[in-house]
Structure formats: C-alpha cells, structure tokens
Design goal:
Elements (H helix, E strand, L loop, with lengths): L13 E6 H11 L4 E4 L6 H9 L4 E4 L3 H15 L3 E5 L3 H4 L2 H9 L4 E7 L15 H5 L5 E5 L5 H13 L6 E6 H5 L1 E6 L16 H13 L3 E5 L1 H5 L3 H11 L3 E3 L14 E3 L7 H9 L2 E5 L5 H4 L10 E6 L13 E4 L2 H17 L7 H13 L14 H12 L4 E4 L3 H9 L8 E3 L9 H11 L5 E6 H7 L2 H8 L4 E6 L4 H10 L18 H7 L3 E5 L5 H10 L5 E6 L36
Parallel strand pairs: 2-3, 2-4, 4-5, 5-7, 6-7, 9-10, 9-12, 10-11, 12-13, 13-14, 15-16, 15-17, 17-18, 18-20, 19-20
Antiparallel strand pairs: 1-8
Helix pairs in contact: 1-2, 1-7, 3-5, 3-18, 9-14, 11-14, 12-15, 16-17, 16-23
C-alpha cells in the first residue's frame, strides 16, 4: 500500500492501511476540523487513541456531553465552519440529543460523532446501547450508522458536506466499536455517495422578476429578514436592496445584527417581544418580502390574524419552508445571497423602466410608531438594579464588535432589545428550541473559534445552573469568556407568565437566591474564575470595566436585579399581534386603515 509520502501527487487519491479509528481522525483532519468537543467512554474509546497523536485536531474535554454539543454550535455560529462534538454510546450519546435538537431548529451545521456497541451486539440491549440514530432521526438533517470500517472515510466526507450545504443542520455519525478497531485501506478523497441530495441555490429568474414587480407596486412593503440571510452571508446584499428601495427592515431573533440596528431603515425585532414599530409594520403591510425565515409562531402570533392584508414573497433555501405556515404568492427557492443579488438587479431594471415604489406615506406611519412607542423600561425606584439598564450599559461599554450569547428567557429578550447589534453574527442564542443552559458552553465554543473576539455570555440564574460546570473546561483550556448573570432569583420568564396569567401564583419558580444558594461569586472562584457581584446601578459601569480588564481567566459577574422586572412589549401566546401590550394593561393605538 502507498504511504502518504509515496502517494501520487495532484488529484490522485492517497491510500494507506488504517484502523477505523485512525481513518476517522485522518478524515477529520482532511475536512479541516481543528477542534472537537467531547468526553471519552467505552464504545468511542478506540477513536481517542489516535486522536491523542493528532497535531491538527484539538480535543476539548468538556464536563457534560450537552456542553460538548452547545460548544460545537457556538463554534459553528461564530466561525461559519462545521462544529464537531463526540460522545460514547448510550447515555453519552443521549446527552447530546438536546444540543442536536437545538442545532436542528436553528439550522446550525454540526457533526456529532458517537461510538456504538460492536455490530454483533446491536439490538441485544448490550451495556450502554441506545439506538441513537433512531432517537435523533427527527432532529438531524441526516444520520449514519457505520458498521463497516471501509465506510468511515466517505461517511465523514458526506456528513460534513450535508451539514454545511443547503440549509445547514446537524448530522450524526454513529460508529460501531468493532468498525473502529478493524483495518481497511484508507483513500482520500473518497467518493461521496449522495444520490438525490442536490440543494437548489439559484433562484428562478421568473419568480425574481415577479418579486421585483410586486415590490415596485406595493405601498406598504416590509423586508422580513430571518436567520437564513446571515447563514448565507448576505448582509451586504440585504443592505444594498434595502437602501436601493427604501423598504423598512425587521430582523428576527436569529437575524439580529444581519442588518445594523443603527440603520435608519431598521425597525427592530418583530414578534412576541418585538418593537411596536416592527410588529405594527408587519400587521399593516401589504407586501412581506420574507427572506430566510420560517414564519415562526413567536413572530406571527395567531397565524390567521398575521399580516392580514399582505401578499407574500417567500425566499428560502429549504423548499419545505415555502408556504408551510403562510401561503407564498411568490415562492422563491434558493440561497438568500443569490436571491438578494438577483433581486437587486431586477429592482434596478424596474426602476430604470420608471417603476419606483413610493413609500413616503408608509414611512410617516412607521416613524410615528418609532417615536411614540420606543423601547423603554421602568426604573425599580427602590435603588435596585434594572436588568435592562445592565444590558444597555454592557452594550455601550463593550461595543458592537464583541460576540454576545444568550440562554433562554427574560435575559435573552433583554439582550436582544437593549444591546445594539451592528455586525452580522454578533448575537448567538437558542431560538427555535429555547434551550436553557445554552449560553455558557456555546460561549466557550465561540471563543475557541474566535479567540481574538471579546465574548460575553448573558445568562439567567436558572439557565446558568444547568451548564455552569463548563467553567471548569474554560479555566483549564484557557478560554477567558465573560458571563453576565442576570440574577433575579427566579425562573424569570415563567414567573412573568405566572404574574400575568396565573394570578401571581408563583409555583416552583423561586430559586431561593435570596439565601445565595449557590453564591455565584464563590462558585466562580471554585472553578478558577474571577467572580464579581453588582447590586446597584451606580456600580454597573465600574463592574463591567473591571471584567473587561481581565483577559487571562473567565469572569463571572452576578448582576442582582429586581425580581419583578418584566419584558415588554409582549404579545401573549395564542393572541394576535394586534393585541401587543407595551406594558401591563397598556396597548398602542393603531392608525385607521385609510391613514396608510
């Protein structure tokens, strides 16, 4: 057999005899993997032996497999590359399920590699056996069960190709232990076997022309921008289209930063906790140009009352999303970057023909919404800390070049509302799945992918206690993330719902942090981090600046905030967007239809 040094140069394949475990590591090196997050165990152990010798792949020993999965997500979202996590069979693999589901909902490209019991034992209820392919089938873009050593190289190549092309997503590769131990010729590059997998990236020109025509004729259009625009790296093309047409832009939770918050055409985030201007624009629109978005219920509210007068242009790389929730008058299947590039050209042609949209009256209405109902908050009035103030000062002091990550709940919404995002990819959070415990491990992965970036995890005291053990990993691996715990002593978003809809019956939402169990500062110090606490508004700036000065170890800041702070505006679940409240029992006054 040829060795690497004697293999033919150029396009000729390189062949040598390797164990399955060696083939796995070699394949990971060839597809460009530099970081793997994982925990070893019996079934995956053969893979860890050659991994020990790799000079190209760094393995990060996490403290829980869920942390490995979220770290892979954070790495992927911060770098645009495929994130990789690894676990053993049975409980190791099932501990990855939450992160895999999270990646699936948010279209994050990760490859999860799991060990499986030896092929003859599959289906016998062997020790630490679980059908992880069956378990994850609904929440992966694709998954593989590998029982033959010769299949490992091409399966790894296929997994990375599937995860990163078309609509990105998680791919699982489950490898039987005996396949890792057996030997076979290793050839690279392998021949990929993906019959039927042909993602459409180029949009249909007829649909593009029809979209441009509708845009020129509309009186109240809105660019409804989702995370797919960021995934397509199409921020510049989006800005060109918006500025060319003057059409207002709303960016969903997953698209924050894709269009700059500071841009005059930006109305903010739509949805359950969106701005009045963004929600009102969608409701009063006569044309939605939906780009890389899926008409999620958190944006639409009650679907049958959403944007009742609007025609819909819907562009998405996933044809399954088109007309899934809302009928598309002009369906466009394609990569958002190519869609936007073609739309710009088509709109320029329309304008050259004298067909220019006039949105003057529309902007008069929208500017009225922005001026009358800006985002704001009530000061507690008792000297305690408002969480919104913490977010606002964090944004002002840290700046727009940092990467901000959030868990799920009130702190996530405050982070989306009161941090200014002017750069694409600077806000990473768990959107579709709403996974508590996401922020800390995802921040670790983001920092490892972008070591030169300042990385802040904005977390709740409930979320933080689910995955804070990864602080040990951060300290030992030299990953100096910064964590702002918005500590209101409760499961805050659940408490808010109990306040509003359950007659203030606070069943099992009090985390007993008045007794400081745990004491987050002491906990941080136990993990080798710097722990800080801030309880007064006048100390916020100094505390943040102190955290920013520490760059050799992780920093945990316990911001003790008022327990009754709420997220406003709010569209209650099950209601329509027209029923948005700007505070408790306070709603905006909409204009009459004929005013626009």
């Amino acid at each position: 057999m040829a060795t690497p040094s004697s293999a033919t140069q150029g396009n000729e394949p390189m062949t040598e005899e390797l164990t399955g475990a060696q083939a796995l590591v070699r394949a990971l090196e060839h597809v460009g993997v530099d970081t793997v997050f994982g925990i070893p165990g019996g079934a995956i152990l053969p893979a860890y032996d050659p991994l020990y010798d790799s000079t190209k792949v760094r393995h990060v020993l996490v403290r829980h497999e869920q942390g490995a999965g979220h770290a892979a997500e954070g790495y992927a979202q911060a770098t645009g590359k495929v994130g990789v996590c690894m676990a053993t069979s049975g409980p190791g693999a099932t501990n990855l399920v939450t992160a895999i589901a999270d990646a699936y909902m948010d279209s994050v490209p990760i490859v999860a590699i799991t060990g499986q019991v030896a092929a003859p034992l599959i289906g016998t209820d062997a020790f630490q056996e679980a059908d992880i392919c069956g378990i994850t089938m609904p929440i992966t873009k694709h998954n593989f069960l590998v029982t033959e050593v010769a299949d490992i190289p091409h399966v790894i190549a296929e997994a990375f190709h599937i995860a990163s092309t078309g609509r990105p997503g998680p791919v699982l590769v489950d490898i039987a232990k005996d396949a890792l131990q057996a030997k076979a010729p290793f050839t690279w590059p392998p021949t990929m076997r993906l019959p039927g997998y042909r993602p459409v990236t180029r949009p249909h020109s007829k649909q593009i022309r029809e979209a441009a025509r509708l845009m020129s004729e509309a009186r109240r259009p809105v660019l409804y921008v989702g995370g797919g625009v960021h995934k397509a790296r199409a921020s510049a093309e989006l800005a060109e289209l918006a500025e060319l047409t003057g059409i207002p832009v709303v960016t969903t939770l997953m698209a924050r930063g894709t269009f700059p918050d500071s841009h005059p055409l930006h109305l903010g985030m739509p949805g359950m906790h969106g701005t009045v201007a963004a929600v009102g624009a969608l409701q009063r629109s006569d044309l939605l140009i939906a780009l890389g978005t899926r008409f999620d219920d958190r944006v639409t509210g009650r679907l049958d009352t959403f944007a009742p007068h609007a025609k819909v242009i819907h562009a998405d790389i996933d044809p399954a999303e088109i007309s899934k929730n809302r009928h598309a008058d002009v369906p466009i299947v394609g990569d958002c970057r190519e869609v936007l590039t073609d739309l710009v050209a088509a709109v320029k042609h329309e304008q050259a023909e004298g067909h220019v949209g006039d949105y003057t009256a529309w902007w008069t209405v929208l500017n009225g919404y922005k001026e009358t109902y800006p985002l704001g908050y009530d000061d507690p009035g008792d000297g305690s800390l408002a969480p919104q103030y913490v977010m606002k000062r964090l944004s002002e002091i840290v700046g727009p070049d940092a990467i901000y990550l959030a868990g799920v709940g009130q702190h996530q919404m405050w982070a989306s509302q009161f941090v200014t995002y002017d750069r694409p990819g600077t806000f990473i959070n768990s959107g579709g799945a709403g996974t508590m415990g996401f922020a800390v491990p995802a921040a670790m992965g983001a920092k490892m992918g972008r070591p030169d970036a300042v990385v802040w995890a904005i977390d709740g005291d409930g979320c933080f206690q689910m995955t804070n053990q990864e602080l040990a990993t951060c300290t030992l691996e030299g990953v100096p993330i910064k964590i702002a715990i918005i500590n209101n002593g409760n499961l805050g978003m659940v408490r808010q719902w109990q306040t509003l809809f359950y007659n203030e019956r606070y069943s099992n939402t009090d985390l007993q942090s008045v007794r400081r169990i745990p004491d987050f500062v002491k906990l941080a110090e136990a993990y080798g981090c710097v722990g800080l606490r801030c309880e007064r508004p006048e100390d916020v700036e100094a505390t943040i600046r102190k955290a920013m000065e520490i760059n050799d170890v992780p920093v945990v800041v316990d911001f003790v905030v008022h327990k009754d702070a709420m997220v406003w505006p709010m569209v209650a679940a099950g209601t329509g967007n027209d029923e948005i409240k700007i505070a408790r029992d306070m709603a905006p006054v909409w204009d009459n239809e004929e005013d626009v």
